[in-house]
Design a protein that fits this description.
- By secondary structure, the chain is mainly alpha-helical.
- Among the domains are: 177 residues, Rossmann fold, CATH 3.40.50; 72 residues; 97 residues; 80 residues, Winged helix-like DNA-binding domain superfamily/Winged helix DNA-binding domain (Arc Repressor Mutant, subunit A), CATH 1.10.10.10.
- The strands form three sheets. Strands 4-5-6-1-7 form a five-stranded parallel β-sheet, with helices on both faces. Strands 8-10-9 form a three-stranded antiparallel β-sheet.
- The protein is globular.
- The termini are far apart.
């Protein structure tokens, strides 16, 4: 689900025909854009024409940049966001940021796709945000991939107007990351009243920052004269213009207000001479002068609609309680035009808004249809201040009316904001309670928490349903478990609320804490106690029960439970729950070694994880990461990176453990690609994420186990040894625990514990303690075979083969490997073998030479990097004769052809040639191409050169 966006916030303000041209500033902006600086900062106090300058600049961007010269051509595409206080919610901020980029797609800008930024939206809609680097990386890559047109320097410009209204540090941090990695084909412009907390000094030092400040923006005497005399039509003498420009210091808004106040003045010079004082007094004076010179109806309209961030006719009608019979009372007789217009129109406030625009009364049109407006922000601040001073008792009423209009029009977020402003906390609590579930479904956790924080705690406690949603938000938001427990106690103390609601959430907490029996018990209790029409919580409890069965090892019960809730949730239209269940079923298939079925289920879940507009929901991250892990196993590492990166960005607190899984999988991809530093960095991020979530420690253990595995792969055995020591993973204790589980009726374990055991085995093998490793593998194998966990059987047999091989027991090693190959080949496993490195390659050579799954072994060997120098074990003579195809390949090797050339000559794939080459090396007992030719000639297989 997604919160509605106001399209008017994305409109580029139109340039008024009466605007004062500012070529000196336009030229500076163009010149800085030409030099491809990352950021343009326009920072000055209110009323210095920042927005007007930018809209004028956009209208003048009629050039394409080529090198250091300007040539005629289309202007760089520009996107615009007008920010407001409500955008301090990261979800909303990035939703508008991405929506602005998508306006370029709607404008058919080449290379900009309509779905750009889906990963950012989903990640920021999640209850618990993943690290910002993960969130924005895909968006940066998408922007960087946009074609730059026919010429270098073709930029895409995004303007953030009124950025001073953003006070949320997470947004500043995110924007800092974006600026640090901004692609060269994009330029960011920020207009603000105060310098934002961004790394301006660093950008300035690197020459990546363009700045326009107060001294740049204020009107020069010539610009002031043009404004006062040409735009406002005052016909002032040069001395009067100079005096007013001096007193206002070129402050454009001050000049505008003064000009309006001067209209009709007999003594203009006296007015100007009296126009002095600090900003506060000047503003007070101007407001009084401007407002007092307007008809009462206009004053009333201005003051009473100042509470609105954006204005449209029907909304203003509702706030002012305007009806058709009240037209004449609304309109003052001196404003005859307005009266006539209102008499002819059903939209009274709409006519008033158009009147204000025509009379330069500080309204800014937000669309070309002139339906939506906003007041100049400084003017709105002053109007609100005066309204509070003159009619304080009316302010709550106006907010209440606005809230009612927004509620009636389905805009619950705005309705809640105005109700909170009206300090009608009782009504606010009711609205928040109504909107809470939908807000959670949209993953707008920060917004829900802010709303609830604005309410007295006793009011929240009096609304048990709101307490339930607040508890979920606290857990999803990563708040301490104590806070969740406190809110749950409020729920449980209410006799009128079904205890099943608390039981469902407690089941999730129990699952996080590895209390599998308790999770299952609580899930059953929730299902017994929840009403039948509570589809969401009943479905969630059923899902938790199914997951409990799966973690417990009872795959039959797990599948039955999950399939039931998958059917029910789809019938009920609960897309989120259906996707979660499908992903759990996919994981079940994967554990049973059915990778194709798992992929099909993940794909089905991904296709279902969309809202009514076809946009992916946050829970799509689970399916994306599942597909990424499968692609990693199948050794399509590029596809794995795409899926995993997108999945991490989509995943939030709905799949906290899944987000960690994504980092772990991506770390193994980077390790496979030879980038050990990136692998370590990704595991560091996973570790940080695990530490943030105090409801469970099992994710900490899982990350640590995979970190130790990477240490083993990277040869850092001392670090791996310390890991086992710190985790108190002794062989004796582990054996005792495993043997107890083997004899148990049910296997209460999970992959975190299994990951620790398997990593401990790898440490033991690396330490040449193979007997101990084999002792641990025996119960692990028994458990996996007992519960039909074929993927685990494959892993255990692979480690058994490596341990036997290290002991020199080749027969047992090949027997274990043969079992692993027979299970793995139908599903197409690759990385489970290749990640074990050179020792596995040696075993695979032996297996192929002895006819054990030779084709599959050949495909696996082709996936190993740089095997020719050292992977094969030399032998005195050939293990077995070369086949006709192998002889053909060997002859071409002797002729000096590369593998690629051999593939073309014989019409074979490159991987097939590598497989034949590997077989040749193994049979000849050599390490490289030169040795193979020499050995073949010594054996008279090839003629002597």
């Amino acid at each position: 689900m997604s919160s509605p966006l106001l399209k008017t916030k994305l409109y580029i303000p139109p340039v008024r025909p009466e605007v004062v041209p500012r070529p000196r500033l336009i030229e500076r902006l163009n010149a800085r854009l030409l030099h491809k600086r990352n950021l343009t900062l326009i920072s000055a106090p209110a009323g210095f024409g920042k927005t007007t300058l930018l809209s004028e600049w956009v209208s003048h961007l009629e050039t394409r940049f080529l090198g250091k010269n300007l040539v005629s051509g289309p202007r760089p595409p520009v996107a615009w966001v007008s920010l407001d206080e409500g955008d301090n919610d990261p979800i909303r901020f990035w939703a508008y940021f991405v929506a602005a980029l998508r306006t370029l797609a709607l404008s058919q800008v080449e290379g900009i796709e309509a779905h750009i930024g889906e990963g950012v939206l989903s990640a920021f809609q999640a209850p618990q945000l993943p690290p910002i680097e993960a969130v924005l990386t895909t968006l940066i890559n998408e922007i960087a991939a946009v074609p730059q047109g026919d010429h270098e320097g073709h930029l895409y410009v995004l303007i953030l107007d009124d950025y001073h209204l953003i006070t949320a540090q997470p947004i500043h941090d995110a924007l800092t990351f974006l600026l640090n990695h901004l692609p060269g084909n994009m330029h960011l412009v920020i207009a603000t009243r105060a310098d934002p907390p961004l790394p301006l000094a660093r950008l300035r030092g690197r020459g990546q920052l363009t700045e326009l400040r107060l001294t740049d923006l204020r009107f020069t005497p010539d610009e002031a004269a043009a404004f006062l005399n040409q735009v406002m039509g005052l016909g002032l003498a040069a001395d009067d213009v100079a005096a007013l420009a001096s007193r206002t210091e070129g402050w454009i808004a001050g000049l505008q207000m003064a000009a309006v106040s001067m209209q009709g003045q007999d003594d203009v010079t006296g007015f100007i001479q009296a126009f002095t004082g600090s900003d506060r007094y000047i503003l007070d004076y101007l407001v009084e002068e401007v407002l007092q010179r307007q008809p009462d109806s206009v004053q009333t309209f201005l003051l009473q609609t100042a509470i609105l961030d954006r204005l449209t006719g029907p909304l203003c009608d509702a706030v002012l309680r305007i009806s058709e019979s009240a037209n004449q009372r609304l309109v003052d007789s001196p404003t005859r035009f307005l009266a006539d217009s209102l008499t002819r129109s059903f939209a009274d406030s709409q006519v008033m808004l158009e009147y204000l625009e025509r009379n330069n009364l500080f309204v800014v049109p937000l669309d070309n249809e002139r339906r939506w407006y906003r007041y100049h922000r400084l003017f709105a601040d002053l109007l609100r201040q005066r309204l509070q001073q003159t009619q304080p008792d009316l302010v709550p009423t106006l907010h209440r009316r606005a809230s009612e209009w927004f509620e009636q029009n389905g805009l619950m977020a705005q309705a809640i904001e105005h109700t909170l402003s009206a300090e009608n906390l009782g009504r606010a609590g009711g609205l928040i309670e109504q909107a809470a579930e939908a807000t959670l479904m949209r993953s707008e956790i920060a917004t829900l928490l802010r709303w609830v924080d604005a309410l007295p705690d006793e009011l929240v406690r009096d609304r048990p349903q709101l307490c339930v949603y607040h508890a979920w938000a606290l857990l999803f938001g990563g708040h301490p478990l104590d806070a969740v427990e406190a809110r749950l106690r409020d729920v449980e103390d209410d006799a009128g609320l079904s205890p099943g609601k608390a039981a469902a959430l407690r089941a999730l907490v129990a699952l996080f804490q590895s209390q599998i029996p308790r999770a299952a018990e609580l899930s059953r209790r929730a299902l017994e106690q929840l009403p039948e029409d509570d589809v969401f919580l009943r479905g969630f409890a059923t899902l938790l029960l199914g997951i409990s069965h799966m973690v417990d090892g009872d795959m039959v019960a797990a599948r039955q439970s999950l399939e039931e809730i998958a059917r029910r949730s789809q019938e009920a239209g609960n897309v989120m729950l259906a996707v979660m269940v499908m992903c759990s079923l996919a994981e079940l298939h994967k554990r049973q070694g059915q990778l194709d079925k798992a992929a099909a289920m993940y794909q089905q879940a991904l296709e279902l994880a969309v809202d009514g507009q076809g946009r992916r929901l946050p829970i799509a991250g689970e399916a994306l990461m599942g597909l990424g892990e499968l692609e990693r196993e199948w050794n399509d590492l590029e596809a794995a990176v795409r899926y995993l990166t997108a999945g991490i960005e989509f995943t939030g607190k709905w799949g906290e453990i899944g987000a960690i899984d994504g980092y772990i999988s991506l770390a193994h991809v980077r390790q496979a690609q030879g980038d050990a530093d990136s692998a370590q960095e990704l595991l560091r991020k996973a570790w940080q994420l695990a530490l943030q979530f105090d409801a469970t420690e099992m994710d900490d253990d899982l990350v640590a186990a995979h970190q130790a595995r990477l240490w083993v792969a990277q040869g850092n055995l001392e670090a791996a040894r310390r890991w086992a020591e710190e985790r108190e993973l002794t062989v004796d204790a582990s054996l005792a625990e495993l043997e107890e589980r083997v004899s148990s009726v049910s296997f209460r374990s999970h992959r975190r514990r299994t990951a620790e055991y398997l990593t401990l085995v790898r440490v033991l093998i690396a330490q040449k303690r193979c007997d101990e490793a084999l002792a641990l593998l025996e119960p692990l194998l028994a458990i996996a075979e007992r519960w039909g966990l074929n993927e685990r059987v494959i892993k255990v047999q692979i480690l058994k083969a490596l341990a036997c091989h290290a002991q020199g027991d080749i027969a047992q090693a090949l027997a274990a490997l043969e079992r692993a190959l027979s299970l793995a080949e139908p599903a197409g496993y690759v990385r489970v073998f290749v990640d074990e490195g050179e020792p596995m390659a040696r075993l695979l050579y032996r297996a192929a030479a002895r006819g054990i799954a030779p084709e599959y072994a050949g495909r696996l060997l082709a996936a190993f990097p740089a095997l020719e120098p050292a992977a094969q074990e030399p032998q005195a003579d050939m293990v077995e004769p070369l086949s006709e195809r192998e002889l053909e390949v060997l002859r071409l090797i002797a002729e000096g052809l590369s593998n690629q050339e051999i593939a073309r000559r014989l019409f074979l794939s490159l991987s097939t040639v590598k497989w034949h080459t590997s077989n040749i090396y193994g049979k000849l007992g050599v390490k490289n191409r030169t040795q193979s030719v020499a050995k073949a000639r010594s054996l008279d297989i090839l003629p002597t050169a």
